[in-house]
Amino acid sequence: MKPLLCVLIAAALAVGAVSNARAADDTWVLRLGVHVVDPKSDNGHLAGMKATVQSDTKPTVTLEYLITPSWSVDLLASAPFRHDVRLNGQTAATTRQLPPTLGVNYHFMPDARVSPFLGAGVNYTYFFSSKGKGPLQGAHVTVDNSWGAAAHAGIDVQLSPKWLLTADVRWIGISSDVHVNGVKVGTAKIDPLVYGMSFGYRF
């Protein structure tokens, strides 16, 4: 859990630093939405077999702080995602993960009704509750936690001065070693697209 705490501390420090520069005019956006974590199609090989990590959909929450009308810092959090891991097409394990992602975004037209944005940041993915299934039923399966880069793109649509609708997509670099009964059997290269929609409230 220490790396996860590091991400949260970094987010707090980033927000605190920019707050000093713009304390008189703070602007926050809280977004609640639903996103899909969709791993890339080729997830590498585990124990000599082709691995496929299945997608999942969960509720998400994002807190964004606008340093200026164009520049912002945001933190993405979510309910735990659950993924089946298939080996040569057969489900061999399940795992859950939390993917907090901290980033910096640039909004191209912050005063327009429709405003696109681009961003970049860092992700920490925490895997837990991994279990063997099928051919690995009863085996002790673990998936290492992962640090990686993240890219972000999306569009904000202003519904009113306070409310907005956001459609966005992130690419997240996730690569994790997988162990069965303490023995490394390979590396899962997940590198998902995370896409979805959310409603935001500005305050």
Question: What attributes does this structure have?
Answer:
single chain; 203 residues; mainly beta; Porin; 8-stranded antiparallel barrel; 3-stranded antiparallel sheet; 63% strand; disordered N terminus
What does this structure look like?
Mean pLDDT is 90; it is low at 1-24. The protein has one domain (2-202): Porin, CATH 2.40.160.20. The chain has an 8-stranded antiparallel β-barrel. A 3-stranded antiparallel β-sheet has the order 10-13-14, with no helix packed on it. The chain is mainly beta and 203 residues long. The protein contains 1 helix and 15 strands. The longest helix has 20 residues, at 2-21. The relative contact order is 0.21.
**How many whole angstroms does the radius of gyration measure?**
19 Å
Q: Encode the helix/strand succession as letters.
A: HEEEEEEEEEEEEEEE
Largest sheet: 8 strands, antiparallel, barrel
Question: Class, according to the CATH hierarchy?
Answer: Mainly Beta
Instruction: Assign an overall shape.
Output: elongated
Number of helices: 1
Helical proportion, percent range: under 10%
What is the CATH fold-level name?
Porin
Oligomeric state of shown chains? single chain
Summarize the structure.
The chain is mainly beta and 203 residues long. The protein has one helix at residues 2-21, and strands at 28-38, 45-46, 49-53, 56-66, 71-78, 81-87, 90-98, 101-107, 114-132, 141-143, 146-158, 163-172, 175-180, 183-189, 193-202.
Write the layout of secondary structure elements.
Layout: H1 2-21, E1 28-38, E2 45-46, E3 49-53, E4 56-66, E5 71-78, E6 81-87, E7 90-98, E8 101-107, E9 114-132, E10 141-143, E11 146-158, E12 163-172, E13 175-180, E14 183-189, E15 193-202
Antiparallel strand pairs: 1-4, 1-15, 2-3, 3-6, 4-5, 5-8, 6-7, 7-9, 8-9, 9-11, 10-13, 11-12, 12-15, 13-14
